[in-house]
Amino acid sequence: MRGGIRLLFLPLALSPLLPFAVFRANRIAQGEPRSLVETLGAGPAALAVAALAGGIAALAFARRPAWGAAIAAALILGIVLAAGWGASSLMAGVPTQARVSPGAGFWVALVAAALLLIDALARMRPRPALRLALVGFAVAAGALLLSSGALSQLSVMQEYRNRSAAFWREGASHLWLAFGSFAAAMLAGVPLGIALTRRAGARGSVLGLLTMLQTIPSMALFGMLIVPLGWLAANLPAAHALGIRGIGAAPAFVALFLYSLLPIVANTVAGITGVPRSVTEAADGMGLTRRQRLFHVDVPLALPVIITAARIVLVQNIGMATVGALIGAGGFGTFVFQGIGQTATDLILLGALPTVALASATSAVMDALIGMLPGGAR
Amino acid sequence: MIELRSVSKVYDGVAVVDDVTLTLERGTLTAVVGTSGSGKSTLLRMVNRLVEPTSGQVLIDGAYTAVIAAPELRRKIGYVIQDHGLFPHWTAARNIGTVPVLLGWRRADVRSRVRELMEMLQLDPDVIGPRFPHELSGGQAQRVGVARALAARPELLLMDEPFGALDPVIRAQAQADLHRVQRRLGTTVILVTHDMAEAIRLADRIAVMRAGRIEQFAPPADIIAKPATPFVAELLGEGDRAFRYLSLKPAADVARPDGAAEGAADGPVLPGHATMAEALSEMIWTGRDRVRIANPDGDPGIVTREALIRAGRPE
Ligand SMILES: Nc1ncnc2c1ncn2[C@@H]1O[C@H](COP(=O)(O)OP(=O)(O)OP(=O)(O)O)[C@@H](O)[C@H]1O
Ligand SMILES: [Mg+2]
């Protein structure tokens, strides 16, 4: 590894000096820091530090980005496994309401290793198929790790066990909110963008309106939607039957939909108006009808720009869907806000970690899709 | 046969094409030359209705184009533009097959037609066919553009500065290709160009445009011999007139049988199709006052300097 990224070796190397775990008598008690030696025991701690030092040295001399990525991934796995193992040993012989969560040393080491991994992956410039394979591999490895029980004594996993049914239910509604509103925004936004390319006059005002919508803070937008949706639910039995209410999933869905529109519409317009003039002229000159030109030339050539918007919107929606929990929309945000209310950090993590994982995986898959578009379209 | 009857196009109150009437015979190549902004492209684009005339009619083989659905009309007319306009997300082969596919040809027919065209334009179908436009050189992309325009065997081919972006060597080759293809297929061609030499070399007739009007419409020899207006003369470049004229005529026209010449000429024998300009150039370069020229029916003929100079001044 070369360049400024090597600065990350410093926090990685110093992380064993920070508390590796936090012990609590129960889930909301004051946490007590535990060093690496206290967590793992002297012998395993020495081994862990040696492994870390070896990993850093290997990273420093790794010539090929692929080796760097493999070493960084191994470090991450080791750090996580050490946390799981440490939690088990700290929990041995203490009451079951005690909690062990990762400490500052864990987080510093994990973030540094993750950044090193991301850097190495970026330098690998993997082909799209390999990227998809790597995402699949990471997801499979994560699932295996979680289901193996190696991490079961960590506080987050205990929170999960206590509410696993709720976790999957909220996960499903999170996905529905994020992907459903995205799909609706694509269905509405792409045709709207196409229509705007043909009406330069309306373009400015529509894009202006959508930009204005983006600037409304999400809580304010929820508030603004509660009244009209509540009215719809009260006065239209059909709307009520569809599950539309003033609070709950409907206003969150609509808000995410509205936020999604600007990137999609704006990029559709930009993508289509960006098709070179000689290409559209040739298409017309060859005798393509308007429809044929749209579907065979304009949209395919605008696709990379439209998919870029889709990627932005999906990642944005996965994050923002969390906020919907505030008005009872469900989703992983439910755990975050419950956790804040109870000052239970572990519960906050139970909501936040899957959101981050979902957003990262989605972003990586979308990047790979953009890379898979045929030759000249990129 | 293409007829333009009093065709005009008005943009913002300005007639950029102003009452143009032209008749182009089937199988001929007509070059449209003129300064930038004189309305050449607009005139060309009114033939395939990329631009609708403000007034006047365009007829192809006696049929009014205005009553034919534009896409249907355009599929029968080849169209080549300067930046070739190849579809960047399609391979060269698929680009060439565009119109046949639109016309619903069978797949096998499209494929064999694409191969045939690529071979005719000296593009290796197996090498160039699967490439995307950004993987082609400028000259290759231009030839793919020509192949695409010819794919559905149009009887009319419109070309808007097709060779404008090519270097001189590739450009000369592309011109030769066009000449060969046009003669072989008997296609009627309208070629818009900035390059008077190109027009003189390729065209059966040249239309000189200025400010939306046709200043002169005549065969190249007449344009050089009798420019109708000072503008036409200026466009020709007065200094080069004689040479341009000589470049149109075969040197064989003024050759005498070898034996009739007093004293046999030495030096190389020019090929039989050499022009008078080439013969004169050879004399200047080698310091001779006579050169030999090949004669398929017998001994080489002799061309003298006096004969050339006499021939270079039209009566
Ligand atoms: N769509 C249009 N709207 C308004 N004016 C136009 C339009 N198209 C062309 N013109 C004007 O018409 C005139 C002729 O344009 P045209 O493209 O036919 O010229 P040209 O002879 O092909 O020039 P060049 O050699 O530079 O290509 C120019 O003054 C141009 O600005
Ligand atoms: Mg032009």
Structure description:
The complex is a heterodimer of chains A (378) and B (315). Chain A has helices at 9-14, 36-40, 42-61, 65-91, 104-124, 128-148, 155-162, 164-198, 200-215, 218-235, 237-241, 249-273, 277-286, 290-320, 333-341, 345-372, and strands spanning 21-24, 32-34, 99-102. With 378 residues, chain A is mainly α. Chain A folds into two domains: 3-125, no CATH class; 164-372, MetI-like (MetI-like fold, Orthogonal Bundle), CATH 1.10.3720. A three-stranded antiparallel β-sheet of chain A has the order 2-1-3. In chain A, a hairpin with a 7-residue loop joins strand 1 and strand 2. In chain A, helix 10 (218-235) crosses helix 12 and helix 13 packs across helix 14. The longest helix of chain A has 35 residues, at 164-198. In chain A, 37% of the residues are buried. Chain B is an alpha/beta fold. Chain B folds into two domains: 2-237, P-loop containing nucleotide triphosphate hydrolases (Rossmann fold); 249-311, CBS-domain. Chain B has 14 helices and 14 strands. Chain B has helices at 40-47, 70-75, 92-96, 98-102, 107-120, 125-128, 138-150, 168-185, 196-202, 220-225, 230-236, 241-246, 276-286, 305-311, and strands spanning 2-11, 14-24, 29-34, 55-60, 63-64, 77-81, 156-160, 188-193, 205-210, 213-218, 256-257, 269-270, 290-293, 301-304. In chain B, the strands form three sheets. A six-stranded mixed β-sheet of chain B has the order 6-7-8-3-9-10, with helices on both faces. In chain B, strands 2-1-4-5 form a four-stranded antiparallel β-sheet, covered by helices on one side. A four-stranded mixed β-sheet of chain B has the order 11-14-13-12. In chain B, a hairpin with a 2-residue loop joins strand 9 and strand 10 (213-218). The longest helix of chain B has 18 residues, at 168-185. The mean pLDDT of chain B is 89. Chain A binds chain B through residues 276, 278-279, 281-289, 292, 296-297, 300-301, 373-377, and chain B through 48, 50, 70-76, 79, 81-90, 98-99, 102, 132-135, 145, 148, 158. The complex binds adenosine-5'-triphosphate and magnesium ion.
